[in-house]
Design brief:
Strand content: over 45%
Number of strands: 8
Radius of gyration: 20 Å
Helix content: under 10%
Distance between the termini: 34 Å
Shape: elongated
Strand order of the largest sheet: 1-2-3-4-5-6-7-8
Oligomer: single chain
Number of helices: 1
Structural class: mainly beta
Largest sheet: 8 strands, antiparallel, barrel
Amino acid sequence: MATLLIGINSAFAISPAYKGYGELYSGYAIPSGDYYDGGFTYGVSTSHGVTLIDGLFVGLGVDAALAYYTEGYANRYGEKDSDYSGLFAVFAEGRYNILRSKRISPFVGLRLGGGFNGYDEVGSFYFSPAVGCTFNLTKRFGLDASIGYSLFTGSGQDEGSYYNDYAGNINCITFRVGIHF
């Protein structure tokens, strides 16, 4: 067994090293259902983990966001009311930098987890793929920029409400900027 582990370690150059990410983001929020139009989302996220194989990061993180959107129908004064939702997620993240030894490297990433959809006030599933670019300033520090999609699921049903199909899921197209260390 030890020989197998040493062989795998040699073949893939596994050398775990700590890595962290911090990001700010903004984007377009699209609640599901007929009752709401789109709006905006603002958030912050951080994840911490290890690089296992050169360029492959795996870790855990948290995401906190605020989605702000308008109602799809005008009120009796001809104005559209607005609403907001706090979103929170705990996730596992995988990220792979394609050109690892270069100053500028494209990457792909995926976050999966669970959280809290503040509008529904229930737990939610969190799914967030992204593609972007890393700008390495030093060996351990750099800047990151990406575009991605985030999904916070919800129940989509409000028992006893006149509007029985409100924003169950919140879909977000996001632009992220951040640092890695």
